[in-house]
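Hi R.,

Here's the chain you asked about this morning:
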Amino acid sequence: MDLVFNRNFDPRHGEAVPVAPGVRRVTASNPGPFTFGGTNTFLIGEDALAVLDPGPANPAHIAALLQAIGDAEVAHIFVSHTHRDHSPGARLLQAETGGTILAAGPHRPARPLAGLDEKQRPDAGADLDFLPDVALADAEIVEGPGYRLQAIATPGHTANHLAFALLGADLLFSGDHVMGWATTIVAPPDGAMADYMASLDKLAARPESRYLPAHGGAIDEAHAYVRGLRGHREMRERAIMERLAAGDQTVAEIVSRVYEGLDPALVPAAALSTLAHLEHLVERGLAGSTGASIAAARYWLADPRSSGGSGGDSTGAGGGGAVRLG
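And here is the predicted structure, written out as tokens:
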């Protein structure tokens, strides 16, 4: 399918908005180029609740969550990943409710930071202080009164990103991995393109057809949308390869041609997205690199006669939300 974004979203900041049977959304008032209308926190269940992505360390948002929770017990506090618009609210909420915090683990990069500094990272930044009470494994199921949530390892945006399936409900909480308002940034060192593409394939093979992302509104016909995201990434990769074939060698040169007319404020995000694609090409033997820092690195197309790679899809393993630049 053609990739069509839906930016028709009313965040209704601070309100508890029903979005599915037994699921309410409270959107934090932290809108911006990385977060769209704000970070969505989901309250799952009725008598006892699971809270998913408690959001930033924003007292007003925590107060809105507590009002929506009311007298209900909070059994679990889930975190999709460790960017500052998602995880810092966990300990604040736990202090008020006593819920157990569950996530994949502390923040970790997808690859070493070499050649990148914090000033080049366009996302909301890593929450390096976060540590869950319980580290979730891929496919692990957590049960509470009236809900069963399955953790799905979906690295790509961050190395420790989890999506969560609400079993029995044809519903998946897709975090920052799949969003309906734009593409997700995959920015080294937090993210890796090989991981991201493999995680898209992983979700496409699952049965859930409706997604609730961490930013923006619901995604219906999710399988077709995920295929569209994959196609968009493949298109972007082809455009980058065309620029290499034309003689461009640096990230800056490629960005200036592939993202012509881009708001200058978004150029750092585009540079890191381009870097992620270039690293993915190098990993598959489709391009070569000097391996220097992002500012000094040079890239070129590999000679297909000496490469073991191909132009086909790759699966493999290897910040916000994020600026959605694909």
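One quick note: The radius of gyration is 20 Å.

Cheers,
M.
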